[in-house]
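User: I'm putting together notes for a lab meeting next week and I want to include a structural view of one of the chains we've been expressing. I don't have a solved structure, so I'd like a prediction I can at least talk through. The sequence is below, exactly as it appears in our construct file.
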Amino acid sequence: MNTRLKYIAVLVIVALSGVAVYQAYWLGQLYFTMGEQMDNDIREAMRVADLKEVFLRLKSIEDKGPHGVMDVSAGIGEDGSIITKSVTTTQVTLGDETLEQKTGVVLRSSPQAESDSTDDENAFMKMLEDQISVTELASMIQQGLHLGVDRFEGTRYETYDSLLTAGLQQLGLSGDHSLLCIKTDTVFRHATTGYVPSRKARHFVYNWADFGCYELTIEPTTGLVLREMAGILTASGLIVLLLGLAFYYLIKTILRQRTLDEMKSDFTNNITHELKTPIAVAYAANDALLNFGEQADATKQRHYLALCKQQLERLSGMVEQILSMSMERRRQFKLNIETLNLAELLQPVIEQQQLKADKPVTITTQIEPEDLTVQADRSHLSNILNNLIDNAIKYSPGEARVEITATGTGISVTDHGMGIAADKLSHIYDKFYRVPTGDVHDVKGYGLGLFYVKTMVEKHGWSIEASSTKGEGTTFTILFT
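Assistant: Thanks for the context. Below is the predicted structure for the 481-residue chain, given as structure tokens.
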């Protein structure tokens, strides 16, 4: 990997890491915000349940007839604090006389900081601009109302618990909980059957008076918050995954392009050398004929001409193979399928390979049945077999022994040469690929043979398999099905 590609990879990794970190930070902040909102919703459910319970008692008192008068008022103190007064007037009978008894409670909030206004109207307008003060005002009025109703009828703790349970269920909190109602002279406790708070249980307190409050114990709401974030979490995960896949595909494509560029460079070097060799041989033979043709006997002339023909055939084969690859890439050619006798097709191929080999070659065939036929393109099937046999000969040090076996299911070409390492076997069909042989380059080629073989085999609707043992040989098998 060159320096530029390393920089690209580092930038991609940094970019992905940055996106992942930002997403994690954003999701963490969202989780924190939603957790706080859930806590506020639980406290609001406690307050609303208390208000509903108070109104239910008011309705019940109203249905039973008049019992007295309750007056709840709120105002702004000189120090900017909120003052709520709850005055309850009830009738008391003493003998023949009926007397009115008034009971009042005054609630005062903490003084407002930096409040120097004594104008009630200005102080009230300033309070309206402050949302917290408005909420506190509503809460204190509710507390005053609660205390006033308590003068006529005591708190219905079971009713509050059922109202709170319904409110929690609306929030999606249908799990177990425990409720503790504390008053100066009363303590009411209710819990879901079998519920034992864990060490992580959350506690929420709602004070409806200085001497009374509700305490709710409930398990952590983490699961509910995460369920509410499920859509966002899924979308974020998919975005990060898609970005990762896109960057992975980008890097992979760059590496493939780089590898292909290197393979094309190697191919150019190899094909240049391969083309120069037959040209040089044919040129030397033709030069000998021109300069010494008259003195040379007929035997030498035929030898030189045969040499020229052999090298020209070699050149023709190279050009034909390269053109076949070019045509296959453009998808502009069609196979000319016909019924071929395999034995008749193999015979000239074997003779040609034995004739051009520069080493002793023994090729044996076993065809069952002897008149076995295949549906194939004559030219391309001949080239396929030529390539396989040629490789078997080239990669056999010393005498080459090649065995060809054909049945109704396929054709196998086996050699007893140097073999192919297991980690290289999966790359032998790649275009321009040649199995590395170290510093020794005694086997000529330009890495198109097996690519051509695989391409043409698949064009016929067949498949090809290769098995090899290093130092023992290789077997290529073309399967017709």
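A couple of points you could mention at the meeting. The chain has a mean pLDDT of 77. DSSP finds eleven helices and 14 strands in the chain.

User: Perfect, that's what I needed.
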